[in-house]
Amino acid sequence: xxxxxxxxxxxxxxxxxxxxxxxxxxxxxxxxxxxxxxxxxxxxxxxxxxxxxxxxxxxxxxxxxxxxxxxxxxxxxxxxxxxxxxxxxxxxxxxxxxxxxxxxxxxxxxxxxxxxxx
Length: 118
Prior knowledge:
Layout (H helix, E strand, L loop, with lengths): L2 E5 L2 E3 L5 E8 L7 E7 L6 E6 L6 E3 L7 E6 L4 E6 L8 E9 L4 E4 L3 E5 L2
Parallel strand pairs: 2-11
Antiparallel strand pairs: 1-3, 3-8, 4-5, 4-9, 5-6, 7-8, 9-10, 9-11
């Protein structure tokens, strides 16, 4: 049974930091590209950060570049999202995604709420 379980969300003041974690099970974690998405109320789900399965190249949504860092630990089947200098526009539900083109695989976590507010 495939599972992705996110943790680390919460309420933080503007300028603060949070680290999200996502633990995968039931699939070969190291074979998958890992992504963090977010969705704010009334808005589309956007990809925030991506880390590849091989050589770990990363890419980011323009609005989070320089503030967010994605990393992975294949030994722990875990992907992280370090979020610094948080602003109210970062408020959303953050989802972990595991994706592979072939053989096809596309798995999602249940999401974790991040709220940036004073």
